[in-house]
Design brief:
The chain is of the alpha/beta class and 629 residues long. Helices cover 44% and strands 15% of the residues. The chain is built from 25 helices and 19 strands.
Amino acid sequence: MRLLDRIDSPKDVKVLSLEETQGLAAEIREELIATVAKNGGHLASNLGVVELTLALHRVFDAPVDKIVWDVGHQSYVHKLLTGRREHFKTLRCHGGISGFPRLVESEYDAFGVGHSSTSVSAALGYAQARDMTGKDFSVVAVIGDGAIGSGMAYEALNHAGSCKSDLIVILNDNEMSISGNVGAMASYLNRIRTAPWYGRRKQALEHFLKKIPLVGGSLASLSRKIKNSIKFLILTGQLFEELGFTYLGPVNGHDIQGLEELLRRARQRGGPVLVHITTRKGKGYEPAEKNPDIFHGIGPFDRRNGLSEAKKGVLTYTQVFGQTMCALAEEDERVVAITAAMTGGTGLDEFSRVFPQRFYDVGIAEQHAVTFAAGLALGGLKPVVALYSTFAQRAYDQIIHDVCLQKIPVVLAVDRAGLVGEDGCTHHGVFDIGLFRSIPHLPIMAPKDENEFVHMLRMAVAMDHPVVVRYPRGQGLGVKMEEGDPGLELGKAELCRKGSDVTLVGLGVTVELCRKAAEELMRMGIGAGVINLRFLNPLDKDMIMTQAMLTGRLITVEDHTLMAGMGSAVAEVLADEGVEGVRLGRLGYRDFIQHGSLEVLKREAGVSVESVVKMALAICKETWQDVVG
């Protein structure tokens, strides 16, 4: 029987010997690899925190003590140790456990999370509430070296240092966020090596030590180890001590005994304490150690060699974006690209290699990315900011105040718009339309296929004002890219199919869904027209009004929340124009959507071919009955 099979709660971890705990760590790694190979998920980050998670649950007493994870994609080990071992095989599956901490899933999940740099703020809130209510428990925030470079993390550290509450912040330093760390914080740990005086003294010392007979080489090696320790202690200790924290570390994050000793010291010390640990992403699985960026978030793969299941033929929208950006940059030297720690995720890895001087990865700093782009544009460049829809939410003020209010020509390339599947509610991009369409003079466009996407990007880069292009996760329709110019005109929709009984209105990926529903309705004797809306702002009111008067029945279908979405925009047109007698049905999302496959989630939420057909039949039947009766 495996040790892991005996673990039903953290209490079972506390009674293990050190040797048993190390054996449990090996079993956990096997479980992680096997499960993620089958279900997909975040592997490298979880392999890197196995010993840390074990040490946390051996030293602290969750759920009374609060352990707050940052981002949360590294909480798989935590879930295995906190009563979810038997359900771990359902990780990221519909109806199964989430890939992120969730308050409703377990009392051990102290804070729900999916975006980065929130842990210190939430943990400080816990600590202050504890102090004000006279309770007694420990609060621990776990944050990575990529996330701690975000503005929100700095704000929280600054506040925590002044509060003097008992709070432990664990800095998990693996020298890698999703796309590798950038900026001053990343270089801070290494800065001393580049100082001229340090280099000269280091070389002189090593030269002297190596001359010592017999032991010189060993002493030089020891000197390098001491140098690294001093570098960390002097540099990072000084920074966090100035913020009001007691700095402890660094310690090897894969040494369970050392971790436990340091965590106990942190708990006894009191006040705000920062514990600096160093870990290796992907530890224990060679493919993940060699390619931690690929194994940060990965689909199902062959665990024997780490190779992902082959995706044949059709490009993803993200790949099309990356290729088009390279083509645009070849044609116009003013085109620059910006991303927030998601170089590979946004498809800009090739761009970054071919045009390194015109590519900016600003780290986990979406707000800065947008305002930085505004400055680039005012300086005569053509910036394209590539953000996931869910992360673009973090820069909403900058989009309004710094870009749109001043009408600065910044292109917002909003990837992962709509449902994204197994990552769940923290990552679904279903709020961007509602946010963006309330901003005056901000064009919003969404392509029905890859070919249209390429031309929308070209149109966007050529504009002299801000613009949003939203597109989904996953593969396109496989259309030929050389089909030619689709005849895009700002604010003009496309009538894809004529119909006399009902008109289906789609935007982006739902256009194809409407087309399939129209074919199904035709077989039932109902003539359904299909509109590819293309643009939400400006909206093609003439097309909507013409089709509304022709068929008397409209159904809007969107990969977005119903509130403030595309259907709302169409309803506003009908209301503003004083149209009477037109029956309007709307399909979209009415609540937060959990995790699972796209097919299952959309069917369950009522955004499917079957749902469109059902609503069309109901609307047509209802109207016919009214006419007859």
